[in-house]
Design brief:
heterodimer; A: about 325 residues; alpha/beta; Rossmann fold; 5-stranded parallel sheet; B: about 325 residues; 2 domains; 7-stranded mixed sheet; 5-stranded mixed sheet; 12 helices; 14 strands; globular
Chain lengths: ~325, ~325
């Protein structure tokens, strides 16, 4: 069943959201350099064409699980960037009241089941979310975003097998950015095409250029529709690239400047989508400028919101461990 | 009151709660075939075929999937065939299940019950005989429940199935066939409420799991010598009913803490420390622990029988304290 091509409005929404991720994270890195955002910061910059087109097929009632590189997934699913920025600043108005930080942003009201500091931590959550949806016959789907590094962990195998044999409405989306932290994928895996692992579980494996928002949109649309029809999971591999280091401050001695430039300058997914939309006559320079200015203004507002918010008070320390207070 | 086994009590709790709440679902290895290795899940498939899934041997997958379903409106009960196998799912237990409420700022309930058959049985050696309560107690966010009687097992399971937080439900395999009185009428037992299994004024024995029965046996022996032991079963280690424990210590001034765990770093160590910290002035003697030897469980019956404490060890320990 072919996926309908995205409308001009859908493409503009995708394009805008990709900019939201890009500028949110550039701002987060800047705030980190100023010492205002503390702790680990893993950016999604360069990978925007994966999460955004995938989530364009989802409703608030659908579920996603994420990774330690989770800002992009949050924004793609529609999270409030003010509360995200406040969380990075460690403030009480953040999504997690300042108890989570960059690696643990969640928004259960929109089915965003949390960024996850454990590589492969999302497989079980997404598989279980799919089980709940299947039991309710609700037509909901769950999308599990994970990296190439996670494919080398046990939960990848255990949960994809369960998802496959129970025919759960789950799409396992591999963001293959070719590096597990500092280690090149090819040094630790002979099968570098993760989609090729799908036949081992009896499910379809699909590989797509993860820098091409349109290609991802189409492939994800098919996989999600298949899941909603009750035909079970798909393993969708998106070949992509992390433009910045593993975390902010990573000196990146493990890869060459030329390699980074080759991806960042020639294959930027935002530029690529802009070019496509301009050629299709659905994005003028003025519209493009307006989108970027609006997103930048939203980010500035998010920073103001975060900076003007209070830190959590000491009484928060022992709250939320259980549904009742006990420490 | 009818007498039933702990296995039947647990099964009754599951059936009654599944009838009451359609979001309760069951998963685990072999839980449909023969009604599960311990027959606790027997009859569920016949009544609710959609609500029980027999899984592959994938403990990380079982716990992860249960957790995901719990975050999305269901109440999963997962059986881990032996508590020893939970080690294969410790990321899911420790980093995910225990922390999700806190690290996401209280956005979600995490109603997962993990049923964890524990302890020695039928000479099954080092990888099928462990007790790991202390591991779970060490992780904020987990609740640790250890019933010692069919009555407690049913009431605590019902509370677990109605709660909003993860439960590590320890089921001592040797107790499955033990019988006890269980009313047919509806009841639950709240977490954090210890039970005084026997009143006495000379010494307090705080015991969990199979050590509760042995403590009561020891108390009978001691009573014949004129020593009245109070036996307290905390029933839940997290949350722990410190008030009942401390009150008893203030009454008897002498305490033994006993469980089937390896003694080093065990649950008894935590309870003994709390008493030492908070009841020091009430103590007439050092707090003593009676727990298992610090060894992996050996296979040979001649060695295994040396590991887990018996009633006579409790009697000897009390005589030392009181004598």
């Amino acid at each position: 069943m072919p996926v309908e091509a995205p409308s001009a409005d859908t493409l503009k929404a995708i394009y805008t959201r990709m900019w939201r991720i890009r500028l949110f994270e550039e701002q987060a890195e800047y705030q980190s350099s100023q010492g205002k955002v503390m702790g680990a910061l893993h950016t999604y910059i360069g990978e925007e064409a994966v999460a955004v087109p995938v989530c364009a097929h989802l409703q608030d009632t659908d579920y996603i699980t994420s990774t330690h590189r989770g800002h992009g997934h949050c924004i793609a699913k529609g999270a409030d960037i003010k509360r995200m920025m406040a969380e990075l600043f460690g403030r009480a108005t953040g999504y997690c009241k300042g108890k989570g930080g960059s690696m643990h942003i969640a928004d259960f009201t929109i089915g965003m089941l949390g960024a996850n500091g454990i590589v492969a931590g999302g497989f079980g959550l997404a598989t279980g979310a799919g089980w709940a949806a299947q039991l309710r016959k609700s037509g909901q789907v769950a999308v599990c975003f994970f990296g190439d590094g996670a494919a080398n962990r046990g939960p990848f195998h255990e949960n994809i097998n369960i998802g496959a044999v129970w025919k759960l409405p789950v799409v396992y989306v591999c963001e293959n950015n070719q590096y597990a932290q500092w280690t090149p994928q090819k040094d630790v895996t002979l099968v570098t095409d993760i989609a090729n692992m799908a036949p081992a579980y009896g499910i379809p494996g699909v590989q797509v250029d993860g820098m091409d928002a349109l290609a991802v949109y189409e492939a994800a649309g098919e996989a999600i529709a298949r899941a909603r029809r009750g035909e079970g999971p798909t393993l969708l591999e998106c070949k992509t690239y992390r433009f910045h280091g593993h975390n902010f401050g990573d000196p990146q001695m493990y890869r060459s400047r030329e390699e980074i430039a080759d991806w960042a300058d020639k294959r930027d997914p935002i530029k690529r989508l802009a070019t496509h939309m301009q050629e299709a006559g659905i994005l003028t320079d003025a519209e493009d400028q307006a989108i970027q200015q609006q997103v930048a203004a939203d980010i500035q507002e998010a920073v103001r919101f975060a900076e003007s918010s209070l830190y959590p008070t000491p009484d928060e320390l022992h709250k939320d461990i259980y549904s009742y207070e006990y420490a | 009151m009818p007498k039933i086994s702990m296995r039947d009590a647990l099964r009754d709790a599951l059936h009654e709660e599944m009838a009451r709440d359609e979001t309760i679902i069951v998963l685990g290895e072999d839980v449909i075939a023969h009604g599960g290795p311990y027959a606790v899940t027997r009859g569920i498939y016949e009544k609710y075929p959609e609500r029980i899934r027999q899984t592959p041997i994938s403990e990380a997958g079982i716990v992860g999937t249960a957790l995901g379903a719990a975050l999305c409106g269901m109440r999963p009960v997962a059986e881990i065939m032996y508590v020893d196998f939970i080690t294969c799912a410790m990321d899911e237990v420790v980093n995910q299940m225990a922390k999700i409420r806190y690290m996401f700022g209280g956005q979600t309930d995490v109603p997962v019950v993990l049923r964890l058959p524990s302890g020695t049985a039928r000479l099954i050696a080092a990888q099928h005989s462990q007790t790991l309560e202390a591991w779970f107690m060490h992780v904020p966010g987990l609740q640790v429940v250890v019933p010692s009687t069919p009555y407690d097992a049913k009431g605590l399971m019902k509370t677990a199935l109605r709660g909003r937080d993860p439960v590590m439900f320890i089921e001592y395999k040797r107790l499955y066939t033990n019988e006890g009185e269980v009313p047919e009428s509806e009841y639950t037992i709240p977490f954090g409420q210890a039970d005084v299994k026997r009143a006495g004024q000379d010494v307090t024995i705080i015991a969990t799991g199979p050590m509760v029965g042995k403590a009561l046996e020891a108390a009978e022996t001691l009573a014949a010598e004129g020593i009245e032991a109070e036996v307290i079963d905390p029933r839940t280690l997290v949350p722990l009913d410190k008030a009942t424990i401390f009150a008893s210590v203030h009454k008897t001034n002498r305490v033994i803490v006993s469980d089937e765990e390896v003694k080093r770093g065990g649950a008894s160590a935590e309870i003994a420390s709390l008493i030492a910290e908070e009841c020091f002035d009430a103590l007439d003697a050092p707090v003593k622990r009676v727990a298992s030897a610090n060894v992996p469980m050996p296979f040979s019956p001649e060695l295994e029988k040396l590991v887990v404490p018996k009633a006579e060890h409790l009697v000897a320990a009390v005589r030392e304290l009181v004598g």
